[in-house]
Amino acid sequence: MTDFLPEPTLIAMPPDILPLSVDAVPHLRIPWDARFTLDELRQIARTEPNLSVWNCRTGEYVIGGDWRHRQEIATIVDLAATSGAIDVVHGLAALCQAHGRRLLVASEQAERRKREFFAAVGMEELERIVVYELPRVRSGQTRNTLLRFERLRLEDAQALEELQQLDHRAFPWLWWNNEREFALYHGVEGVAVDVARDATGTMVAYVGTTRFRGWGHLDRIAVAPERQGCGLGRVALDYAVMTLAASGARRIGLSTQARNERSRRLYESYGFQRTPSQDYSVFGRWLAPAAADAADNSDVLGR
After folding, report:
1. Cβ atoms within 10 A of the Cβ of 149, count?
2. Are residues 30 and 165 located together in one domain of the fold?
3. Which of 39, 43, 42, 80 is nearest to 60 (CA)?
């Protein structure tokens, strides 16, 4: 069960900052490299009126969204602002807090700003994500007598429930997948989710992979906490690599939390090499009581 820390202070909406409405869209200052078109911004304002704000004086704006399809966490999707960026992010935080969001996050993958900026908008670094690549992918299956792997079927409600429970026990709160996230992820072309059962039929691990042409990515790999330290992580990793190799992947990448030393040792012993230029951080501002285990150094394998 997740514990939460004391409630943060109420965030005030800065002057000139308003929730984004359909009528406001024509008045936005759209940059040349904008992520969304005017029609897309109208649709966002129409369907998600509580996730975006704009400055009615300058036309600057920030578009928010659900983090990993979780309604308790919002994320910055597009920040179209320069001098007024701090005000619109404060405004987004105030709006999200008013509508019951627990956390507002920003990933450097989507928003490259100086650390001083994140500090100025009340965000702290929640996670540092480090990236690895396996430069030489070997093929051929290794002998495995510990686990039985099977492809997840979304119509199997019991298996999906087991998977979600395993995911929540293995990963820190910030990285939990809900049923909608699993369903949308499972539907992406090239994605496979395989669950692993032991001799008793208990689901004790799972892997999620993506393959695109000659490239593969290990998206999720987890072992039930009570079964870690028994070699199952290496079995799951080997299965994921061999499965991607058999499907044509010649390069395989993955990412994990910088603090997760045990999983990093496993990847490095397997032959994965760091690619520091691709590392990034996830920053966050708590809008409601913070989850005590949101940055827990759980013994997860992957991200």
Report:
1. 17
2. no
3. 80
Residue 69 phi, psi (nearest 5): 60, 30
Q: Which domain covers residue 57, as residue numbers?
A: 17-122
Alpha-carbon gap, residue 222 to 237, rounded angstroms: 9
- Mean pLDDT over the full length of the chain: 91
Task: For residue range 164-209, list pLDDT tens digits in order.
Answer: 999 999 999 999 999 999 999 988 999 999 999 999 999 999 999 9
pLDDT attached to residue 142:
67
Closest by Cα among 75, 85, 31 to 55: 85
User: Quick one: 145 and 274 in the same domain?
Assistant: yes
How do the residues of the chain divide into helix, strand and coil, expressed in percent and rounded to 5?
A: 30, 30, 40
The two tokens of residue 128 are 């540092």
Nearest residue to 191 via CA among 166, 165, 218? 218
d(CA 18, CA 61) in angstroms, rounded, equals 9
166 phi and psi angles, rounded to 5 deg: -60, -45
> pLDDT (tens digit, 9 = 90+) per residue, 198-213?
999 999 999 999 999 8
Task: Assign 1 a pLDDT band (cuts: 50, 70, 90).
Answer: very low
Indicate the pTM of the whole model.
0.90
User: Is the residue at 271 inside a domain?
Assistant: yes
Estimate the crossing angle of helix 232-246 against helix 261-270, to 10 degrees.
50
Contact status, residue 196 vs residue 148, Cβ threshold 8 Å: yes
- 116 falls within a domain: yes
Number of Cβ within 10 Å of residue 26's Cβ equals: 11
Strands of 145-292, DSSP E: 148-151, 191-197, 203-212, 215-223, 251-257, 273-274, 280-286
Q: φ and ψ at 76, to 5 degrees?
A: -80, 120
Q: Which residues of 105-139 are buried (b: 16+ CB within 10 A; e: fewer)?
A: bbbbeebebeeebbeebbbeebbebbbbbbeebee
**220 in a domain, yes or no?**
yes
